[in-house]
Amino acid sequence: MVGRVGTVLRAVSSFEPTGATTSAVAHLAGLPRPTTHRLLTSLLDIGFVDRDRNGGWLLGPELYLMGETAAPRYDVTQVAQPFVRRLAVATGESAFFSTRRGDETVCLLREDGSFPIRSHVLYEGIRFPLGVASAGLAIASFLPPREVEHLLSTDLTGAYGAAHTPEAIRARIAQTQRLGYAVNPGLIVEGSWGLGAAVFDHAGEPRWALSLTGIEQRFDDERRQAMGERLLQEAHDLSTALRAR
């Protein structure tokens, strides 16, 4: 029961801030619709979820209060914010900071650069499986082989297309290990490219990632290499800052 509640809450969070139907939550959680509705109704009674005027499910006020209480122990966004802003200013692209949460990444920060045409694939709160999008690929590429094989055992092609077969992800992991940074050549939304670099904790584990997204025309070979090198430098400096914290 506890596991199902957690799965439902994570599913609801994936639809913030627009809200989700019961059917959409059930589909993402992998649960029958009646079971999902029963759990959502119980969570509504205790304030863990809420409903908007159209009946869509959202995270509730009690989760906000609990998060505020826990934030001092877990929140690293204040440390990361200057690095994200520097990347956005230096490149003109949208810059992001994401964290690993189990087999997913969660976007925590977004800072838009000066270039007027932007990619809207990423926003605060969105989740992707590890190995999908540049941040998740950057983190996955520096995990122990056993964890990588576990990730590759999940079929991602249904949700993310034929470019996300185990063989294709394995090839991108090898490329990331060679370059140091991950490249997403428009695999989620055509024409929207991304670069990602892993950020490491005090134990040397890839726990977070910095990333950049923009339109394909801005990610030609020469500029992509320059942005990748800048991304790696900022990721290294952020790793150092977070270890000191």
UniProtKB/TrEMBL annotation:
Pfam families: HTH_IclR, IclR_C. Residues 62-244 form the IclR-ED domain. Keywords: DNA-binding, Transcription, Transcription regulation. SMART domains: HTH_ICLR (SM00346). It comes from the Bacteria. Residues 1-61 form the HTH iclR-type domain. Gene3D superfamilies: 3.30.450.40, Winged helix-like DNA-binding domain superfamily/Winged helix DNA-binding domain. This is IclR family transcriptional regulator. It comes from Nocardioides panacihumi. The lineage of its organism: Bacteria, Bacillati, Actinomycetota, Actinomycetes, Propionibacteriales.
